[in-house]
Amino acid sequence: MSIFGKSVFGNKATDSIPTPSPEAGTGAPGPAVRKSDDEWRSELTPEEYHVLRQAGTERPFTGEYVDTHTEGVYQCRACGAELFRSNEKFDSHCGWPSFWAPLADGTVRYIHDRTLGMDRVEVRCTNCDSHLGHVFAGEGYGTPTDQRYCINSVSLKLVPRSTREPAPAES
Which of 5-19, 30-44, 94-108, 119-133 has the lowest mean pLDDT? Predict the structure, then answer.
């Protein structure tokens, strides 16, 4: 049961960050939102740019969503794509917001990350290829997936349920 492949995550992890063009040999499209570094720098704060576009990490216990329990949807701060729901968020006490699953298959993608002498799985927004954080498995948190998506607050924007448009009524 590999943390880096289909058996755990339901989609294929890659070993490197692809270029914005379709991935060679896979037929998979690149990110839908493509901007130059200058465009990203003009739209994001320096901290947002560092985390989202340079795969940085905010300091633990400093992010605005670490202890947030507001109902709603967490969007990618760079492009607005919906990534996580508050009902998948849990208190892991690790210093960053933690979720046990993304909102839906295909909203995030995974990259085998070997930086800083560690072996882990990076989580990126599928829509704009921004760095979100990392996912860990088998830590014993007792979540339905036995996974912890450790996500930087600065990578997210919470849209509270009360400000979202109501879902259409079923007939």
Answer: 5-19
Positive or negative, the CA dihedral 122, 156, 141, 94 is positive
Report the pLDDT value the prediction gives residue 2, as an integer from 0 to 100. Answer: 36
Query: Using alpha carbons only, what angle is made at residue 51 by residues 45 and 52, rounded to the nearest 5 degrees?
Result: 80
Of 16-20, 54-58, 84-88, the least confident: 16-20
Domain that holds residue 54: 33-161
Domain contains 16: no
Instruction: Give the span between the Cα atoms of 18 and 106, in whole angstroms.
Output: 16
Strands 120-125, 89-90: pairing is unpaired
CATH number, residue 148: 2.170.150.20
pLDDT digits 0-9 by tens, 80-95 = 999 999 999 999 999 9
- Residue 42, in any domain of the structure: yes
Task: Provide the residue count of the chain.
Answer: 171
Is 150 a catalytic site residue?
yes
Indicate whether 110 belongs to any domain: yes
Look at the chain and report how many structural domains it folds into: 1
Q: What's residue 148's pLDDT? A: 95
Residue 166 lies in a domain: no
Of the listed 76, 79, 128, 150, which one is catalytic?
150
Rounded-to-integer distance, Cα 152 and Cα 66, Å = 9
